[in-house]
Design goal:
Chain lengths: 249, 290
């Protein structure tokens, strides 16, 4: 049923550190690699080697420029996948019951056998976390690698989402955000983890850690001017042209 | 939002069809025999044709039957159920008029209520979305109902009802367009809240996550509609509201009535195209677009 379950005792999710993410897109590649051959329909590509490539991804990395009032602009790399919201609007709008939130750990999943591909859940999601696969005609979304995290056939270090396992800079953390003593909850508390678009009331489980304040001011360095006082023919030309009526740029 | 032809055709024609069924149901016109057959066939052609068109935008239309199951939370599911109930009740009511020439008033009123419920649940599919500020407003359901029953009155030849309802719907549509222009800006969502980086400074999209397009950009970021929005609003108002009202005020003539209906349909198709094409989804903020 697409009714949301009562808040689960366990809230599995990700904590993404915007301070340490270097924007390498390794999480994007490992996510696509794992999920295209495991849970549900493959993540198809259209025209992958042609002029207009397009495809289904469950995790994408944006890059933003943030301009403080004083000082140079900062570049922030920004990975974005499903936030496994507590009050997930994508679940309640589903007409078939394909979209659901698990009562045991809060993971939001799509039962692809029931999905009619109407796209309404993607309309209801503020974060762009759901993409309709153009080949399979069903909705795809992050499963939090539900087929890895409980997988007894994998070595313990691999029992975490592919994006977390692969991140070379340690910018992605996986754990139980309902447990105050968990590593992820402590990270959120220490670093001031925040929600995306909290005004929409979705109560995301995933949290983002803000970039740390700059400890060293980096002044904007301009190149020295090549010439202040011209000499010779060019200087004469400059003066002669400036004497003519008209606008100087 | 991407203006999918299937959804525009669906909302326009099923709106008209259920609008006509409403007037037939309450007994505004009580045709019998062959005449009733023609009236009900026209209404069903619009309503069912529109509903069938809506299945064309599904990724897996063969599973559409499953959409009747989640009425407890989903407006789309409720719409499906309301539509089927209204159509079944009105079919029995219509059969009475066609074959026995008797009007079962109770069934008619029940079917009319079903028609209202269907149009209202359709409108709530859009109205419920907090992610689309322009739609998330009381004007959306009221306009859907006004257009449906105004258009239905036009089809049913209800001169006074059509003029009054279309005039009201026209004024409300103008208000919805003007007020809707500010709603995204006033929604409280912007690039700062989307990224949570507003405490550092002004956020600008520096680089998209990919070099090509994707489903999200095709579905939610449609800027062509906004370029000519004002011109299209004037065209839609002239065709959808003003022309039919003038043609209905003129002395009655079958050609004028047919023209009024055709103008109205063209106008509603135009304003429904704008309803999608002009509308911004908050996900565009992540792409620095609207």
């Amino acid at each position: 049923m697409t009714q949301l379950p009562p808040p689960s005792a366990k809230k599995l999710g990700l904590v993404i550190d915007l301070d340490t993410c270097v924007g390498c897109h390794a999480c994007v590649v490992s996510c696509k690699g794992w999920n295209t051959e495991n849970y549900g329909a493959p993540l198809s590509d259209q025209d992958p080697y042609g002029a207009e490539p397009s495809g289904t991804f469950l995790n994408r990395v944006h890059s933003y420029e943030v301009q403080p009032e004083a000082g140079p602009a900062q570049l922030v790399h920004f990975p974005k996948s499903c936030l496994h919201c507590e009050d997930a609007p994508c679940v309640t709008v589903c007409p078939t019951g394909a979209s659901y939130k698990r009562s045991e750990d809060g993971i939001v999943l799509v039962n692809e056998k029931d999905c009619i591909g109407c796209g309404l859940c993607a309309w209801a999601c503020p974060y762009g976390a759901r993409e309709l696969d153009a080949d399979a005609g069903v909705m795809k979304k992050c499963t939090l690698c539900v087929d890895r995290i409980y997988n007894e056939n994998l070595p313990e270090e691999d029992c975490q989402p592919a994006c977390v396992r692969t991140c070379p800079s340690g910018a992605r953390h996986f754990g139980d955000l309902a447990d105050e003593t968990s590593e992820v909850s402590q990270l959120v508390a220490e670093r001031g983890g925040f929600d995306l678009m909290p005004e929409l009331g979705t109560k995301p489980v995933n949290k983002y850690l803000p970039p740390r304040p700059k400890d060293v001011a980096v002044p904007a360095q301009h190149l020295e001017p090549v010439a202040h006082n011209g000499k010779g023919f060019v200087a004469w030309l400059d003066r002669a042209l400036s004497a003519l009526p008209g606008r100087t740029n | 939002m991407h203006p999918a032809p299937s959804v525009i055709i669906f909302t326009t024609f099923s709106g008209l069809g259920f609008g006509l069924l409403f007037w037939l149901g309450i007994g505004a016109i009580v045709p019998t025999g062959l005449s009733a057959f023609i009236w009900f066939t026209s209404a069903y052609a619009c309503a069912v044709g529109g509903l069938l068109a809506s299945t064309f935008h599904l990724g897996r239309p063969e599973r559409a039957i499953k959409a009747f199951s989640q009425w407890k939370t989903s407006w789309l599911s409720r719409e499906g159920i309301a539509a089927v109930l209204a159509l079944v009740i009105m079919a029995i009511y219509g059969a009475g008029l066609v074959f026995t020439g008797t009007r079962v008033a109770f069934l008619g009123w029940l079917g009319a209520f079903g028609a209202i419920a269907t149009v209202f649940t359709t409108s709530m599919i859009y109205t419920q979305l907090k992610t689309v500020p322009r739609w998330h407003h009381w004007t959306t359901p009221v306009l859907f109902l006004g257009l449906s029953f105004g258009g239905g009155a036009l089809l049913a030849g209800q001169v006074t009802n059509a003029i009054v309802l279309l005039a009201l719907a026209g004024v409300l549509q103008a208000y919805a367009w003007i007020a809707g222009d500010q709603r995204f800006l006033n929604s409280g969502s912007d690039m700062q809240t989307a990224t949570g980086l507003g405490h550092i400074g002004k956020v600008r999209a520096f680089e998209p996550p990919h070099t090509g397009s994707n489903y999200l950009m095709r579905e939610f970021i449609y800027v062509v509609g906004r370029k000519h929005a004002k011109r299209l609003q004037i065209i839609a108002t002239a065709l959808g509201f003003i022309a039919p009202i003038i043609l209905f005020i003129l002395p009655f003539n079958h050609i004028f009535a047919a023209l009024a209906v055709l103008c109205h349909i063209a106008g509603v198709l135009c304003l429904r195209w704008l309803f999608f094409a002009q509308t911004e989804h908050v996900v565009g903020l992540y792409y620095g677009k609207r």
